[in-house]
Amino acid sequence: MKFHLTDSFQKKAKKLCKKDPQLKIALAKQFSLFQENHQHPSLKIHKLKGKRSEQYAIRIKGDLRVLSIKNNEIFIFFDLVTHDQY
Q1: What's the number of domains the chain is made of?
Q2: In the beta sheet, which residues pair with residue 69?
């Protein structure tokens, strides 16, 4: 599955990876899995509800999620948040 990382996502990920170097490894692993099989069980991909009903969340580690939207056949990852933030 194809995906795109927004500039704001990359900036936030870089900032969080400075605080938690293991996050960089987790992100790389999950994006690799996503590219191979976007329905892989460890991604726990799911469509959100309510005001975010057009968005998807993918588990990175613990309660950290990547938020995305789907545009045709491309997922656009735009934010990195904890489960409580969305």
Answers
A1: 1
A2: 55, 76
